[in-house]
Amino acid sequence: MSNLSTAEHSAATSSPLLTVKQLRVDLPVAKGTLHAVRGIDFHVERGEMLCLVGESGCGKSMTSLALMGLLPRKAQVNADCLNFDGVDLLTVPERERSNLRGARMAMIFQEPMTALNPAYTLGNQLCEALRRHQRVSRQAAHDRALYLLKRVGISAAEERMRQYPHQLSGGLRQRVMIAMALMCEPDLIIADEPTTALDVTIQAQILHLLRDLQQEFGTAIIFITHDLGVVARIADRVAVMYAGEVIETASAQALFKAPSHPYTQGLLRCIPTPGKTLPGSRLQAIPGVVPSLVGKIEGCAFCNRCDQADERCRTTPPLQAVAGEHFSRCHFAHQLASPAPLNDQEVTS
Amino acid sequence: MTNTTSPANSMDPLALELCALSKTFKLGGGMLHKPQTLKAVNEVSLRVPRGQVMGLVGESGCGKSTLAKMLLGLTPPSSGDVLINGKAIVNANQKALARHIQPIFQDPYSSLNPRQRIAQIVGLPLRIHALGTPREQAAKVDQMLDLVGLPKRAAQQYPGQMSGGQRQRVAIARALIMRPDLVICDEPTSALDVSIQAQILNLLLDLKDEFGLTYLFISHDLAVVEHLADRLAVMYLGQIVEEGTREQIFTSPRHPYTQALLASALTPEPGLGVPDIGLGAGQPDPTQPPSGCAFHPRCPIAQPQCSEQTPKLSAITHASGQAFGKGSQARVACHLA
Amino acid sequence: MAQTLSPPAAAAQRPADTWSSRLVRSTLNNRNLTIGLLIITSLGIIALLAPWLAPHDPYLQDTANRMVPPIWHETGSWTHPLGTDRLGRDYLSRLIYGSRISLFIGLVVALISGLIGTTLGVLAGYFGGRVDAVVSYLLTTRLAMPVVLVALAMASLMGGSMLSVTLLLGLLLWDRFAVVARSATQQLRDAEYVQAAQALGCPLPYILLREVLPNIAGALIVVATLEVANAILLEATLSFLGMGVQPPSPSWGLMIAEGKTYMFFQPWVITIPGGALFMLVLAINLLGDGLRDLSAPGGRNE
């Protein structure tokens, strides 16, 4: 794999690795249709780390499953464009899709306990991940598995290959999942909350590892999480989702320094940050709840919780460009993008 | 409803005191091998002053959940004492204990009986303890629901019809309806979205001030603990490795594990990257604790004596000891602190 | 507090969307459940209204009209639509009255064995340790017994009768209840709402009856329907072997036994009660399947 830094690499190839335009995912439920994803646009450059961040129910997991083609059959996936490195994911036959899966697009799931098959050894599962897609000898697969296990920081790798998932702790299992995802040298890894179920010290190690591996292998990663702290530390670019829409995309620096959507600002304000928020003070919570995604939503989905809302918010705001690559789906985007940092809580009562 | 704590108890400055509390489990064992002992809680001593929030921080396997269960009377300690309001609870009747200490659990989806209505759930403590007539109980339930920010019609709903944040409010209402002195909050916001977490944390702070509650706040989220707690204790493999005020712990942590925990807490500040904690990939195994200091296999500054001698939790003076005021003792269990 | 107020807008229900109307809708959507319920309800009504529905007295012997074939034979007649047996008793009436016996025994046995099995299972699941060991031992012993042989042996000691059959089967068929109740309770034992009830100082009977039992009821109801079917078949077996309900009671099993000798030349003597048994047991199994679908995680709000 190339040793170019991620920036150089993405400059070298101009078209994005993954382009998503107006992705919609609808699920029939008892009460009607659940519009889990309501027309989102984003792209992923080669070798970059895009974080998809949002709270529960925003549609981020649905997006990842739609990209991988892992949604249940009754789910309807539509998009204007769903292009992975020249392959149109909407029209590609299922056979080719499953060839793509694992080989060029890999997924890491949240629960390491359940994502590994308890009936097979780790070595078996690792080698199978490779041999399903490439014609390699058992020995070659074994060697690659060993190499990757060592690379992800698992000591006594040879012994671990013969062990079963239940013999490993959560952190180690997640490392094995990462190794498994890397077996075929995929261009894109979709990681769906891979560290949410782990202890915080283990999480730090796994994140550090992912960043290292990304630099070394040049893999693009879509990292799905609800934890803004994680996003700030590892993301190159961020897409914030709310109620099935992407409401803001920006580079990590731009998003945290100048959030341009009331929801993003609300999120940042309500997180207690040691050193910034006054201990014992009231956090500025976002009032209200997320609207139901069953049935149509008129206008901006956030307006019933927004203190800036006015008449214009009855119509869905278009995506406004706040600066270079910084977009926000809000009528007030330009006014909100103020240079002053917003987490200055020392003065609040 | 009358406050049933006697005047003598309510003057006790310590709401909660733990003295060398331990809990040992026996696992497995059969005809071919001896049962393993798991020392989930190992000689924990702690003092929680009245009206304060004591944060208890630690990762999985550190024993904080077992500790909480012992305080609530759900499992008996293997040794040591628990004193609530100055009185030992070891032989206390569960009902009497329940008047003074109540839990708020982590998972809003399993902490409420899915087959009962909210009014039944919140009113259960009053019914079990036969406090007031049914009409008075219903009035109290309505009052509690209002206090936690739920509308009146929530009383007739089932938990399945509510969101996670609302269920957690119900759990809080149930915990506080008998006005206990001490509330054990076992990761109450870990399963909630960040925007809901903020609402619940605000609610917990408001209620603490209104009712003069004392909280033992168990969490792995250091940012939340820093926001809420007055004092902090850090647990590792069943022992307290460091204890102090919030400022002491967050500005000058002494124990390597505390330092690692603080470094792992990722604040939403871009450009700082993920620090390399340097703890090694090994996970602690509670059934086979390391010799000497339990942390030494993962400790970046471990010395030979760390594997030979178990460090005792002892008081230290901080460099800027004066700044933290009197009575704010800090303790660390490390040979090198 | 205004800032923390969050009206449950997202969870608002339409007025008609109550628990009962959702139940009705789920039932109608499930074909198994609907068919099963229809058949069983019809049989239940027939059983209840037997005295008014049966054209003749099931015990009335009419030796002049013995072995009259049913209506679909050339020599059949509408006085005896399903023919008569070897003693001239009207088959249709005996069939109708026989449904009472089957349903009664099925339900009562399920009740008795359900009580025994659920109690043992819940206690084993909740306490674990020694209690669990004792119950598991009882369970293993019971599972090692061949039910039919034991029932036969006991019946021959006690003498066959409806009462003895009911008691015997009730005391023998509790195993599935115990197994299901035990595993369901084990899953609930560490649920936080159970811990919360314990932390409140709730007495043990309250916790078992009001916190644990309602939440395992779903699984137990499914087991109950299957045990009803089991009991009905076992009663038919015992009666067939002469150790169950005694003649002249119109138990379907007994009717089959009495028709044994005529099996080849007048097959309807066996096929009619056999067919009725088949329909009933099939209906109960369909009901059980349907209930299991309903109570599966996808079928309910939670």
From TrEMBL, chain B:
<dbReference type="InterPro" id="IPR003439">
    <property type="entry name" value="ABC_transporter-like_ATP-bd"/>
</dbReference>
<keyword id="KW-0547">Nucleotide-binding</keyword>
<feature type="domain" description="ABC transporter">
    <location>
        <begin position="16"/>
        <end position="262"/>
    </location>
</feature>
<dbReference type="InterPro" id="IPR017871">
    <property type="entry name" value="ABC_transporter-like_CS"/>
</dbReference>
<protein>
    <submittedName>
        <fullName>Oligopeptide transport ATP-binding protein OppF</fullName>
    </submittedName>
</protein>
<dbReference type="GO" id="GO:0055085">
    <property type="term" value="P:transmembrane transport"/>
</dbReference>
<dbReference type="InterPro" id="IPR013563">
    <property type="entry name" value="Oligopep_ABC_C"/>
</dbReference>
<keyword id="KW-0813">Transport</keyword>
<dbReference type="InterPro" id="IPR050319">
    <property type="entry name" value="ABC_transp_ATP-bind"/>
</dbReference>
<keyword id="KW-0067">ATP-binding</keyword>
<dbReference type="Pfam" id="PF00005">
    <property type="entry name" value="ABC_tran"/>
</dbReference>
<dbReference type="GO" id="GO:0005524">
    <property type="term" value="F:ATP binding"/>
</dbReference>
<dbReference type="Pfam" id="PF08352">
    <property type="entry name" value="oligo_HPY"/>
</dbReference>
<comment type="similarity">
    <text>Belongs to the ABC transporter superfamily.</text>
</comment>
<dbReference type="GO" id="GO:0015833">
    <property type="term" value="P:peptide transport"/>
</dbReference>
<dbReference type="GO" id="GO:0016887">
    <property type="term" value="F:ATP hydrolysis activity"/>
</dbReference>
<dbReference type="InterPro" id="IPR003593">
    <property type="entry name" value="AAA+_ATPase"/>
</dbReference>
<dbReference type="InterPro" id="IPR027417">
    <property type="entry name" value="P-loop_NTPase"/>
</dbReference>
